[in-house]
Specification:
single chain, Immunoglobulin-like, TIM Barrel, 3 domains, eight-stranded antiparallel beta sheet, 45 strands
């Protein structure tokens, strides 16, 4: 939100009140309270009839500095819950400044006339809230806002802010943190996270459930500005040696991504949305996949497993699915998992609507009536997840589906949440609930699956989210278009989400809207099966491979098998993500932060720390991509690259090839091709790629066991010792 008219003027509708000077302060055991009036105090009379910011500084974790500015008290706390860790805080009261220290980080507050905050890491200034950056703002219509501005360097780039389909680097963008049912080709998005991360190795979480408005080098091109409507503003500056360290601390505070079950990394097939299907259709397509030897793990039933106008009735449409339990058993007998579509909205025609209305489990209007509208389902109401009894009711209904064999739920929607004329059970301000609703919704479903199926077996396929939603994987990129440009938009959304604390991500292979072409289907299949999670899904078309020609069938078989082969490496990377909070699917800048050539890249990415994936986004198979310095090996073509510096490559690939490269000094364990879940420590092939001189240790972690690969390279003589493996082969790639 912009408050200025150019650099010099304030917009007519606003009145600015700056934190002018540090007038007083209180030092406590582990926090610091600052008092900054909105006017410079020159004599006792100037203390009258003015406002003042009370600014509390503390630390929720080492190297995290929290700043909370408050003008008036507010009835509802707008903050997300933070998982605080005990920290060692040191506060120094020096002659000219106060220094608040935590870990290697510190904030310095000058005692002079001009109020400002300077944030340092290991002695290096990272960012600062300059004089008159902190502001309390009055609008003539009666609304009040708080804002702060943090400086950015001329070569500084900003990433994150949730799933964003706009350019990956956020400099120059205006971003409102407000979940919308948007589609995957606009500035709006389903998952908005008020956290950004800089290539200078610090991040900023604006901890507020309300709409946070960011001006990223837009209103003031040398600053990131963030503002909220209300009487307080809290943000946390998280600092580290690297961007990876910053993300690790951020996920320490907001939650680590849970580890998805291994089967979830396999290919998911879907009935799609508006297609006609019944029991015979489902079994026919499953059997065809099996007969054609195309590996897949999950069959997904989309909305029309229920009758039209009755979402969510929780009842199968008996005309097309007369025996759902029997059908699910047949699918399980074929070795496949089952996912069904759900949402938190209850159509008026659904039998359960009256029950929910009578029990008060739906959102209500201020006049006491249930809140309803016709968007999505006729006369639908919205379940109130602030009501524990409503949550229990919803979970009980889902539990009945688990009883008949359902393995997972696609938790669709959760973004169209009203803020006007609506009352929640906990009576919180509806503005606070708009984004947060998606967190409560997915939390309720995920925790039920965890309770019923066990730890590391729970998985939702979620579209919406908020701060902390990374604890409930996996998320997919919403309704994209069946176009090459939408492939790029989807990837940008995923990479931005990964820079916001999330680790696992998917997208509708082939595009959701409209018909797709054979070439788009083939290239998107490659991209999809080299994302962490892979699902075919569409609006009006089945996405079965053979419907798009023999070549598409061949590509699907090849890349589904390839993903299964890579599962020992992929699942170990997933375990690492769940422990450290480093995304499994990584933007190039995150893995190669010291290489300036990677900082703008948004059409290629890393899976784990060793595999580079370059999807092809245009007809004809021609692609440009960037290779950081070193030796690289294309595992599909066996081509090798040796670069003394980072270089741009231009190549053309046929329909079943693409750039998929392993960096030197990597170890990749290959396993079976025909399934996702198997013993990753038996009957495998260990691929060792150009080990560096000396000794290296590669650890592959799993829930039940670890594998250790020790590689020693002495003048080209390479020794590989494997612990935790049985019946394995070793292949070494080395010039000598």
């Amino acid at each position: 939100m912009k408050f200025t008219d150019g650099y010099w003027l304030i917009r007519d509708e606003f009145e600015m009140h700056y934190s002018e000077q540090l007038r007083d302060y209180t030092i406590l055991d582990d926090s610091l309270v600052l008092y900054a009036p909105f006017k410079k105090i020159t004599h006792k009379g100037t203390t009258l009839n003015i406002g003042m910011s009370m600014i509390t500084i503390d630390s929720p974790a080492d190297d995290a500095i929290r700043v909370r500015m408050k003008h008036f008290e507010e009835l509802f706390d707008p903050r997300y819950e933070i998982k605080e860790n005990k920290t060692n805080v040191n506060i120094q009261d020096n002659k000219n400044e106060i220094v608040f220290k935590t870990g290697l980080s510190e904030v310095r507050i000058a005692k002079g006339e001009n109020f400002n905050l300077k944030f340092f890491y290991d002695g290096e200034l990272k960012t600062e809230s300059l004089y008159r950056s902190q502001s309390y703002i009055k609008e003539k219509n009666g609304k009040n806002y708080y804002r702060d501005q943090l400086s950015i360097a001329p070569d500084e780039l900003i990433y994150g802010l949730g799933e964003r389909f706009t350019p990956f680097v956020k400099n120059g963008q205006v971003v409102d943190i407000w979940n919308e049912d948007s589609g995957a080709s606009s500035e709006q998005t389903y998952i908005n996270i008020p956290f950004y991360i800089s290539n200078k190795s610090y991040g900023v979480l604006v901890n507020d459930k309300r709409k946070v408005s960011f001006e990223v080098a837009s209103e003031d091109v040398a600053k990131v500005q963030f503002s909220v409507e209300g009487e307080s503003l809290e943000y946390c500056v998280i600092l580290g040696d690297t961007m990876k360290e910053t993300l690790q601390t951020y996920t320490d505070l907001t939650g680590k991504p849970s580890l998805p079950p291994a089967w979830s990394f396999g290919l998911w097939m879907s009935t799609s949305f508006c297609t006609d299907y019944q029991e015979s259709t489902v079994l026919k397509y499953i059997d065809q996949m099996i007969e054609k030897e195309i590996p897949f793990e999950v069959f997904h039933f989309d909305c029309f497993w229920m009758k039209e106008f009755e979402w969510m009735s929780f009842e199968w449409d008996s005309q097309v699915f007369p025996d759902p339990e029997g059908l699910i058993k047949k699918i399980h007998d074929r070795g496949k998992k089952v996912c069904v579509w759900i949402n938190p909205y209850i159509g008026r025609k659904a039998k359960v609507f009256n029950e929910l209305n009578e029990k008060g489990y739906l959102l209500k209007k201020q006049d006491g009536n249930v809140w309803q509208w016709d968007m999505w389902q006729s006369g639908m109401g919205i379940l109130d997840f602030t009501n524990p009894d409503a949550v229990k009711w919803y979970q009980d209904k889902l539990s009945e589906l688990i009883d008949i064999g359902v393995d997972s739920f696609k938790t669709d929607f959760g973004e169209r949440i009203p803020t006007e004329d609506v009352i929640y059970n906990n009576e919180v301000d509806p503005i606070h609930m708009h984004n947060y609703y998606s967190y409560l919704y997915n939390k309720a479903v995920f925790e039920l699956l965890e309770e019923r199926l066990g730890e590391n077996e729970a998985l939702v396929f979620a579209r919406s989210g908020a701060v902390g939603s990374q604890e409930f994987p996996v998320h997919w990129g919403g309704d994209n278009l069946s176009e090459f440009t939408s492939m790029i938009d989807s990837l940008r959304g995923g990479l931005s989400l990964m820079m916001s604390g999330f680790s696992y991500w998917s997208h509708d292979i082939g595009g959701f809207e409209d018909n797709t072409t054979e070439e788009i289907y083939q290239r998107w299949t490659q991209f999809g099966l080299l994302s962490t999670h892979s699902r075919y899904h569409a609006n009006i078309e089945y996405r079965m491979p053979w419907l798009y020609g023999e070549k598409s069938e061949e590509v699907t078989r090849k890349f589904a098998s390839l993903k299964n082969t890579l599962m020992p490496y992929l699942y170990s990377s997933a375990v690492e993500s769940s422990v450290y909070g480093i995304p499994m699917m990584r933007p190039m800048v995150l893995e190669f932060q010291d290489d300036l050539g990677t900082h703008y890249l948004d059409k290629q990415y890393m899976i784990g720390d060793s595999l580079l994936v370059v999807p092809i986004f245009k007809e004809g198979g021609n692609v440009d991509y960037y290779l950081p310095k070193g030796k690289w090996y294309n595992i599909l073509t066996n081509k090798q690259y040796d670069n003394s510096v980072g270089v741009w490559i231009n190549e053309t690939y046929n329909y079943n090839q693409m750039p998929l490269l392993v960096r030197e000094n990597s170890v990749i364990i290959h396993g079976k091709q025909d399934e996702t879940c198997y013993s990753y420590n038996e009957d495998v092939v260990v691929h060792v790629y150009n080990p560096h001189e000396g000794y290296q240790e590669h650890i592959f972690k799993y829930p039940e066991f670890d594998i250790k690969i020790e590689v020693t390279n002495l003048d080209g003589e390479i020794l590989v010792n494997c612990t935790g493996l049985s019946n394995y082969e070793v292949i070494i790639y080395n010039d000598k």
